[in-house]
Amino acid sequence: MLRAIHAIFDTSDLPCIEAFRKRFDPLFPHIQAHLTVVFPFDLPVSDEALLAHGQTCTEGLRAFSMELQRAECSTDDHFWLSVRPSPTLEELTRRLHEGPLAPLAVRQFGATPHITLARPPLPPDLQEEFLKLSLHFPFSRTITSILLEAIEPEGGSLELGRFSLPE
């Protein structure tokens, strides 16, 4: 079973983002808007070991701000909000890619931090639909927790653990 680790932020004051995801992201019913910190992986590491690793990696971290810069299409036809790298996000990413997840560190190199809004196939009018949201960039959101997810074979999501970051 694939697993992944995500940074979670509150979108309650941005209902337009969730409405957009609901229309264009088939993962909407399975997982809230998120920034993937460790992309889906299949390593022979127990859930308990991953939870312990997540706990260790988040110790001493506080909630932190991320800046969403602009909407763009990726080379593999995903539509996302790019996130400006920050020292705290980079530190969290580095920590998570150590220990039992060290084999994934090379794969993470060069990944663009982002919030996925739509997945292929993208409709031709997607950009126009997004512009109707009238979002003004850049804007910030606060990462308040880290989520360890198991991805079920049929695409569902199972929360294995969540680590709150104090304000």
Write up this protein.
With 167 residues, the protein is α+β, with helices and mostly antiparallel strands. The chain has one domain: Cyclic phosphodiesterase (Cyclic Phosphodiesterase, Chain: A), CATH 3.90.1140. Helix content is 25%, strand content 35%. The protein contains 5 helices and 7 strands, in the order E-H-E-H-E-E-H-H-E-H-E-E. Strands 1, 2, 3, 4, 5, 6 and 7 form a 7-stranded antiparallel β-sheet that branches. Strand 3 and strand 4 form a beta hairpin. The longest helix has 12 residues. It is globular and about 45 Å long. The model has no long low-confidence stretch (mean pLDDT 94).
Question: Which keywords apply here?
Answer:
167 residues; alpha+beta; Cyclic Phosphodiesterase, Chain: A; seven-stranded antiparallel β-sheet; 5 helices; 25% helix; 35% strand
Strand content: 25-35%
Task: Calculate Rg over CA atoms.
Answer: 16 Å
- Say how many strands there are: 7
CATH architecture: Alpha-Beta Complex
Keywords: Ligase
Protein name: 2'-5' RNA ligase superfamily protein
Pfam families: 2_5_RNA_ligase2
GO molecular function, one term: ligase activity
Secondary structure: elements and pairs:
Blueprint: E1 2-9, H1 15-24, E2 34-41, H2 47-58, E3 64-73, E4 79-84, H3 87-96, H4 105-108, E5 114-118, H5 126-131, E6 139-151, E7 157-164
Antiparallel strand pairs: 1-2, 1-6, 3-4, 3-6, 4-5, 6-7
Offer a quick outline of the entry.
The protein has helices at 15-24, 47-58, 87-96, 105-108, 126-131; strands spanning 2-9, 34-41, 64-73, 79-84, 114-118, 139-151, 157-164. The protein is of the alpha+beta class and 167 residues long. The relative contact order is 0.28.
